[in-house]
Amino acid sequence: MLVPVVEQFVKNYHKQIVILHIMKISLLVVSCLVVLALPAKAQYASEAYELNGEYGVTIGAAHYFGDLNTRAKINRLKPAIGVFFRKQFNNYLGIRIAGHYAQVGYSDTYSKNDFQKARNLSFNSDIYEFSVSGDFNFFKFIPGNPNYGFTPYITLGLGIFSYNPYAYLDNQKIYLRPLGTEGQNIGYEDPITGKKRKPYGSMSVCVPLGIGLKYNVNDQFSFFVQAAQRLTFTDYLDDVSTTYIGSDKFLNNSGQLTTAGILQDRSYEKGQIIGVEGRQRGWSKQKDQYMIVEIGFSFAISSYNCPSTN
Questions:
Q1: Cα angle 55, 61, 65; round to 5
Q2: Distances (CA, A) of 75 to 78, 109, 110, 245
Q3: pLDDT at 30 over 80
Q4: Residues 6+ apart with CB under 8 A from 307
Q5: CA distance 190 to 182
Q6: Handedness of CA 278, 205, 263, 281 (dihedral sign)
């Protein structure tokens, strides 16, 4: 009786061993298939995901460079904010439409140059800017893909901006452009060029040129850091460009200096008046510039391509 039972047990045991081996092999095969399928699935997800565009906001600081800041010092940062929309053409190239508000300003009191200290001019201005720029990523950038979620980039564009420099006199804010501090309102004839000076406009063209770093958090949200210099086509962002025309050109009917006469030469506040006619007040051959350094937060406009049946 015992032998058949043992034989049956052995047979069943061998069957169980075979079944276990088959199960192990099956599990191994399935595991291998899953592992092999994961990259294909991830690749398919990356290929299926399409970044159509981004929109977002930026916050940062602006700085001015020009006749009052000839050494390109960065020591008087002022606030800047912006909004933008970026259209992506592929993983490397996009075009961005942006609007910015920024404040800029500077003063001769920040300079170590003796002439500038004696000149004693200052200004502030609000800037409203609209620009269109091309952004080029150095690396492939695919939101939601950890292998392509970071890239440095460069940006180059063209924009227009409005500006309106002002200064303070006895704690009163006074806009400088209407005053014609370099003789623009009286058609003063430049002794060097022989041309009559004309009032400058309230708008100019700028060329934003910069670099940035972009990082993707997930397939819907990214942030970036960018620094972009604005090369402008005006030398009157600070209301300083050419030469003094002499205080005698700014007298009222009573023979007293007008507000324009007081603000065109503030060296009297330092003790020695330097604003004689023909003396250099600014440097017209070099246009003014400003920079915006900002942190941006963007939200993706995306879609997923359906798989082909072919």
A1: 120
A2: 10, 12, 9, 31
A3: no
A4: 44, 48
A5: 10
A6: negative
| Residues shown for the chain | 310
Distance CA 93, CA 89 (A): 6
pTM, two decimal places? 0.80
Encoded amino acid at 87, one letter: K
Token readout for 235 is: 């030398």
Q: Distance (Å, rounded) from C-alpha 124 to C-alpha 237?
A: 9
SS3 138: coil
- Sequence-ordered list of residues with C-beta below 8 angstroms from that of 29, at least 6 positions apart, any chain: none
pLDDT digits 0-9 by tens, 105-138 = 999 999 999 999 999 999 999 999 999 999 999 9
β-pair partners for 135: 94, 155
| Rounded CA separation 148/259 (Å) | 59
| Residue in the block written with tokens 């409203």 | 128
